[in-house]
Amino acid sequence: MTDAEREELRRHGILLTSLEELYNWGRSNSIWPLQFGLACCAIEMIAAATARFDIARFGAEIFRPSPRQADLMIVSGTVTKKMAPLVVRLWNQMPEPKYCIAMGACAISGGPFKQGYNVLKGIDRYIPVDIYIPGCPPRPEALLHGLTQLQAKIRGEHLAGPDQAQHLRPANPGELPIPDYGAHDLEPPHNPARFSPPSLPRKA
Amino acid sequence: MSDHPHAFLALFLGVALAFPLLLLSVTWLWVRFFQSARPGPIKNATYECGLAPTGDSWIQFKAHYYLYAILFLIFDVEILFLLPFAVAFTGLSSGALITMLVFILLLAEGLVWAWARGHLEWK
User: Fold this and answer.
1) Strands (DSSP E) along chain A, which ranges?
2) Of B35, B37, B43, the CB nearest to A93
3) Which of A41, A64, A192, B3 has CB 3.0 to 4.6 Å from A70, enough for a Cys bridge?
4) Which of A19, A83, A93 to mutate to test the interface with B (most CBs of B within 10 A)?
5) Residue A31, Cβ density class (10 Å: 0-12 exposed, 13-18 middle, ≥19 buried)
């Protein structure tokens, strides 16, 4: 039965489900984010947890102080090159399946500080990002929207088959390389498996 | 069902054993097929603040520290007991004075003992 057929039956009041759907439904409604913030976006993230915005409505209110108990990393704020190895190490210490939200322009691309020598131009150079939330900083509603998008993504994951979820593929590495502080910059400057910078051919 | 008056206990025992065993086996099967633990040196590392771990996770604390803390606690509580005595001093009988003197003497003895044993010196 295809998803479309199942949806059609649902519209007529017949609820059919699968183990996979139940599993994903449970996972998507009990996301535990890692409690850490980097800059201004973290204040918006904190605001999303308060009563006015109430992230608890989406089952993601349990911010865990330990990466061992978290399955969502919200990279909220400017990732400096000094912080990048720490962020990647925290990511590596999170159990699978895990997801990453890049919150704000800085986490996505360096944002207004992109030209700074000390700013990482996007955390997706090292970590696989699932949801990008643009803004500087994005409001708590934007984070909640990103969270619901992530929930939709989790609900669409498959346990088996060719489009199996990333964390179930044995070929995928369990740990990503942690950059080191080199003489002038982070080494490596990016994780080649995740990000390859565009090459700009210069005209002679 | 048997007519034995305690037959239901056997049923309870069976359910009590089967229920957790069933849940544990489903969990085990799920982990086996759908959940990859993927341990690694970084994931198994000690610290959780993102910094590279240094040293060992096993740290030996000095037992002397606890003795020091307990001694502090004893004399701290002594002040708590002395305060109401001092506040109500004029309205108390001579028996209360003797009681408090015994109390203070016992504490003073403890102080002398700790001092003589060298417990008040930080090593």
Assistant:
1) 72-76, 99-103, 131-133, 180-181, 186-187
2) B43
3) A64
4) A93
5) buried
Closest C-alpha among A94, A156, A86 to residue B40? A94
Sheet holding A131-133, edge to edge: A72-76, A99-103, A131-133
pLDDT at B1 over 70: no
Closest chain B C-alpha to A16 CA, distance in angstroms: 22
Question: Over the stretch B17-73, which tens digit does the pLDDT of each residue have?
Answer: 999 999 999 999 988 887 777 788 888 888 778 888 887 778 887 888 888 899 999
Is B81 inside any structural domain? yes
- Find the distance separating the first CA and the last CA of chain A, reported in whole Å: 58
Q: Which of A147, A144, A140 is nearest to A72 (CA)?
A: A147
B-chain residues within 8 Å CB-CB of A167? Answer: 36
Mark yes or no for CB contact A174/B34 under 8 Å.
Answer: no
Chain B residues in contact with A85 by the CB 8 A cut-off are: 50, 52
**Is the ipTM of this structure higher than 0.85?**
no
Using CB atoms, pick whichever of A67, A83, A175 lies closest to residue B40: A175
Task: Work out how many domains chain B is built from and give that number.
Answer: 1
B37, part of any domain: no
Instruction: With beta carbons under 8 A apart, name residues in chain A contacting B35.
Output: 96
Residue A190, min C-alpha distance to chain B (Å): 18
Domain interval for residue B103 = 63-116
* B112 within a domain of the structure (yes/no): yes
B40–A86 C-beta distance less than 8 A? no
Question: What are the φ/ψ torsions at residue B10 (nearest 5 degrees)?
Answer: -65, -40
The answer to whether residue B79 is domain-embedded is yes
Record: contact B43-A174, CB cut-off 8 A:
yes
pTM of the model: 0.76
Share of chain B above pLDDT 70, in %: 98
Point out which residues pair with A103 in neighbouring strands. Answer: A76, A133
